[in-house]
Backbone:
């Protein structure tokens, strides 16, 4: 009878440990969830880094080229050079 009780207690402890391992706080289920969240955040970070790099390249191009500054002034602000006439064709 004592051996049966010991086996039962050991089985209960084993079941409790398995439950804690798979379903408890900081268990495997939670670990997998956190790993997926980390992957998603890393993808977002990579996209933002690419956007920043692209914007930095545009800023560098603008700072180093007077033609780009002129193009922006003409297209976005409708600016013209002195003694220049601007014609707009409406269709």
Residues:
């Amino acid at each position: 009878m004592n051996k049966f009780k010991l086996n039962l207690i050991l089985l209960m402890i084993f079941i409790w440990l398995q439950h804690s391992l798979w379903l408890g706080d900081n268990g495997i289920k939670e670990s997998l969830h956190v790993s997926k969240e980390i992957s998603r955040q890393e993808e977002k970070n990579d996209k933002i880094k690419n956007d920043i790099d692209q914007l930095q390249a545009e800023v560098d191009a603008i700072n180093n080229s007077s033609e780009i500054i002129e193009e922006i002034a003409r297209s976005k602000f409708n600016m013209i050079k002195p003694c220049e006439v601007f014609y707009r064709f409406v269709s």
Q: What stands out?
A: The chain has a mean pLDDT of 88. The first helix runs from residue 2 to 23.
